[in-house]
UniProtKB/TrEMBL annotation:
EC supergroup of this enzyme: transferase
Parts of the chain that traverse the membrane: 20-41, 164-188
Catalytic reaction equation(s): ATP + protein L-histidine = ADP + protein N-phospho-L-histidine
Taxonomic source organism: Ktedonobacter racemifer DSM 44963
Gene Ontology MF terms: phosphorelay sensor kinase activity
Localization of this protein: Membrane
Highest rank taxon of the organism: Bacteria
Domain Histidine kinase: start-end pairs: 258-473
UniProt-recorded name of the protein: histidine kinase
EC number of this enzyme: 2.7.13.3
Residue ranges of domain HAMP in the record: 189-243
Keywords: Kinase, Membrane, Phosphoprotein, Transferase, Transmembrane, Transmembrane helix, Two-component regulatory system
Primary location class: membrane
C-alpha cells in the first residue's frame, strides 16, 4: 500500500474523522474563550495601571505646587513616597533636565520632548527606554501661572508579560489538545472495536460460505448488538432460502433422472422389436403382428408418460389458472365414463352422489377431472376382475368429500407414506403397468385447490382414496 493510499485509508476511518472533528471543535472553542478572556484582562489591567499613574502624578503635582522651591533631596523623598515597585517617578525642569527621580528609577532619564504633546493633551504615551517599554504620563507643575517643571510617572508596559502569558497559554492549549486527541482516538477505537469484530466475522462467513455460521453478539444491548441481531436474522433467512433452493435442485435432479429412465425403458423395447422385425424380414406374419403390438403398447405408454410429465411440470410450476365455479358431479361423471376400460369385469357403483347435486367448487375443470381419472384408473387397475369399485359422495358443512373405494390388492402400511412420491410404486403393484406419477399429480392438483387427499388401505382387501375440497359460497 503506498503512503498516499495508506493516508487516504487512515482519513477514511470513522475514528480518525471523529477525533479530528472533536479536536477541531474543542480547539476553536478554547482559542475563542482564551483570546476573549485575555483581551478583557489586558483592558482591565491597563485601565488599572493608568489610573494608578494618574493618581500618583496628580497627588505629587498638588504637593509640589503647594511648596515650590523644595530642595532636590526633599523632592526625591516626595517622589519615593509616591513610587512603588511598578511605578517610577521623575521631576524635570522646563527644559527636561531631571531635578529628582524616585530611587527605583536609577539614572534613567525620561525624554521630555516626545512627551510634550501627550502632556499638553493629558494623554498617556508609550516609549521604549533602554529597550524597556514604558507607559508614561506627565503633568506640568504650575505656580502662579508659571510652569515650574514636569512630573513624569512611568510603569513598565504590560506588552512583554502579556505576550509571554499568550505564548504560555497557547502552548498549554496545544499540549492539552494533543493529549485529548490521543485519548479521543483510543476511546473511539475501543468503542468501535465490536463493529470491527462484526465486520471480521461477517467477512469470515462470506469467505467460508458456511451458511450455518452467525456473527458474534456481545451481552450489551447497544446499537452494535442490534445490528448483529439484524445481520443474524438476514443470515438465517439466507440459509433457509439456500436450503430451499438446494431441495428444489435435488428434486429436479431426481425427477430428471427418473423421467429419463422411465422414457428409456419403452424406447429400448420399441428399438429391439424393430431390430428383430428387420432381421425377420416379414417371414413370420404372427411375429410381425406381435412385434407391432409391442411397439404400439410401448408408444402408448410413452405418450401417457409424457402427458403426465407435462401435467406434473405444469402443476409443479404452479402455473396460475383462472378458477371457475364448477359443478363437481359433472366432473365426476365425465371421469367415471372414461376411468375404467370396458373390457374389465368390474362392478362400478356410485353412492351419495345426489348429495353433491348442486355442490360447487372453485377451480380448473381439466385438472380436477385428471384427479378423479387417476383415482378411478388406479382402482380398476389394481382390482382383479370380479371386484368392485365404488364412488362415494358426501357433503359436509364447508366441504365436499369424494371417496374412490375398491376391493383390489390393497397397499402395505409401510408403503402408504411413500405413495405420493414421484415414480414410487409399491412392490405389489408390479403386476400392472404404471409409472408412479398419477398420485403425485393428483396431490399437487388437490393442494392447488386448497383440498386434501387421504389413503386408507388393507393389503389384499382393498383401498380407499378420499378427497376433500372446499365448497364455494358456503
Ligand atoms: P402408478 O399407478 O402408475 O404406478 P400412481 O402414482 O398412480 O402410479 O400410484 C402409485 C402407487 O400407489 C402404485 O404404484 C400402487 O403401488 C399404489 N396404488 C395406487 N392406487 C392404488 C389402488 N387403488 N390399490 C392399490 N395400490 C394402489
Amino acid at each position: 500500500m503506498s503512503t498516499r493510499t495508506r493516508l487516504a485509508h487512515w482519513f477514511g476511518l470513522i475514528r480518525t474523522r471523529l477525533t479530528l472533528w472533536i479536536i477541531t471543535i474543542l480547539a476553536v472553542g478554547l482559542l475563542v474563550f482564551i483570546g476573549t478572556t485575555l483581551i478583557i484582562a489586558r483592558q482591565l489591567l491597563n485601565n488599572f495601571g493608568e489610573k494608578r499613574l494618574q493618581q500618583s502624578v496628580s497627588s505629587l503635582s498638588v504637593a509640589l505646587a503647594q511648596e515650590p522651591g523644595l530642595s532636590p533631596t526633599l523632592v526625591q523623598s516626595q517622589l519615593n513616597a509616591f513610587s512603588s515597585s511598578e511605578i517610577f517617578l521623575q521631576y524635570q525642569d522646563r527644559q527636561g533636565k531631571p531635578i529628582a527621580s524616585s530611587t527605583n528609577l536609577g539614572r534613567k532619564v525620561f525624554p521630555l520632548a516626545p512627551l510634550r504633546p501627550a502632556i499638553a493633551a493629558g494623554r498617556f504615551a508609550s516609549l521604549t527606554i533602554d529597550r524597556t517599554p514604558f507607559l508614561l504620563y506627565g503633568q506640568a507643575i504650575v505656580v502662579k501661572g508659571q510652569v515650574q517643571g514636569y512630573i513624569i510617572a512611568a510603569s513598565a508596559s504590560a506588552g512583554d508579560s502579556e505576550s509571554w502569558i499568550f505564548t504560555l497559554m497557547y502552548s498549554g492549549v496545544c499540549v492539552m489538545l494533543t493529549l485529548v486527541a490521543v485519548l479521543v482516538w483510543l476511546l473511539v477505537r475501543r468503542t468501535l472495536r465490536p463493529l470491527e469484530q462484526l465486520a471480521e466475522s461477517a467477512s469470515h462467513i462470506a469467505q467460508t460460505r458456511d451458511h450455518a455460521l452467525r456473527v458474534q453478539m456481545q451481552g450489551r444491548p447497544d446499537e452494535i448488538n442490534s445490528l448483529a441481531r439484524t445481520i443474524n436474522g438476514m443470515l438465517h433467512a439466507l440459509e433457509e432460502a439456500y436450503q430451499h433452493v438446494q431441495q428444489v435442485n435435488d428434486l429436479q435432479r431426481r425427477f430428471l433422472a427418473d423421467a429419463s429412465h422411465e422414457l428409456r425403458t419403452p424406447l429400448t423395447i420399441m428399438l429391439s422389436s424393430l431390430e428383430l422385425m428387420k432381421k425377420e424380414e416379414g417371414r413370420d406374419p404372427e411375429f410381425q403382428t406381435n412385434a407391432l403390438e409391442n411397439i404400439s403398447t410401448e408408444a402408448e405408454r410413452m405418450a401417457r408418460l409424457t402427458t403426465r410429465l407435462l401435467l406434473l411440470a405444469r402443476t409443479d410450476a404452479r402455473a396460475p389458472f383462472a378458477p371457475q365455479p364448477l359443478l363437481i358431479v359433472d366432473i365426476i361423471s365425465e371421469a367415471y365414463r372414461q376411468g375404467c376400460p370396458s373390457h374389465r369385469k368390474i362392478a362400478m357403483q356410485c353412492q351419495g352422489l345426489e348429495t353433491l347435486e348442486d355442490a360447487v367448487v372453485s377451480g380448473n375443470a381439466d385438472y380436477l377431472k385428471q384427479v378423479f381419472l387417476i383415482l378411478l384408473e388406479n382402482a380398476c387397475k389394481y382390482t382383479p376382475d370380479g371386484g368392485q369399485v365404488t364412488i362415494i359422495g358426501e357433503r359436509k358443512e364447508r366441504e365436499l368429500v369424494v371417496t374412490v373405494a375398491d376391493t383390489g390388492i390393497g397397499i402395505a402400511q409401510d408403503d402408504v407414506p411413500r405413495l405420493f412420491e414421484r415414480f414410487y410404486r409399491a412392490p405389489n403393484a408390479s403386476i400392472q403397468p404404471g409409472m408412479g406419477l398419477g398420485l403425485s399429480i393428483a396431490l399437487s392438483i388437490v393442494e392447488q385447490h386448497n383440498g386434501t387427499i387421504k389413503v386408507e388401505s388393507t393389503l389384499g382387501q382393498g383401498s380407499r382414496f378420499t378427497i376433500s375440497l372446499p365448497l364455494l359460497n358456503e
